[in-house]
Amino acid sequence: MLPPREFTTVSKGRNCEEVQGEAIQGSPSLLGSIYGRTCVRWNSNRTSMCKINRSIYKRMYPVTLVQPDGSTIVIRYKEPRRIITLPIDIETLTPEQKKLQLQKRKPKRIIQVVEDFEDDFDIGRYRHLWKK
């Protein structure tokens, strides 16, 4: 484990570049501010890295990830899905299981029903309705 980093604060009148310039010119007390330490900026460019203490991050959704062996893990994913299933490695299966998996991958044939309309309509039976 790495030792904790030490932070050097810079007075408000000076910025990190000035401190680093002095360190490069040979000021031994400021060499540590460049090597192994960081400067704290007292302006809008100051940043920090920390853990977000929220169970759900912004625009990340809890999703159940199902691994090929059947175990599940709850992860955060960018899209709102319920379950993500990882593919099975066919090379590790027995020949019977391999055959079943390959049959599942084949596209299923859709049975097309062709309707045969029998037209037994006779227009002559209804001519008397529109005769004058």
Number of separate helices: 2
Q: Which structural category do the helix and sheet elements fall into? A: alpha/beta
Radius of gyration: 37 Å
- Could you give the order of the helices and strands? EHEEEEH
Main β-sheet: number of strands, strand sense, barrel status? Answer: 3 strands, mixed
Arithmetic mean of pLDDT: 73
Shape: elongated
How would you portray this structure in words?
With 132 residues, the chain is of the alpha/beta class. It has a domain of 40 residues. 15% of the residues lie in helices and 17% in strands. The protein is built from 2 helices and 5 strands. The strands form 2 sheets. A 3-stranded mixed beta sheet has the order 4-3-5, with no helix packed on it. Strand 3 and strand 4 form a beta hairpin. The protein starts with 5 loop residues before the first strand and ends in a 27-residue tail after the last helix.
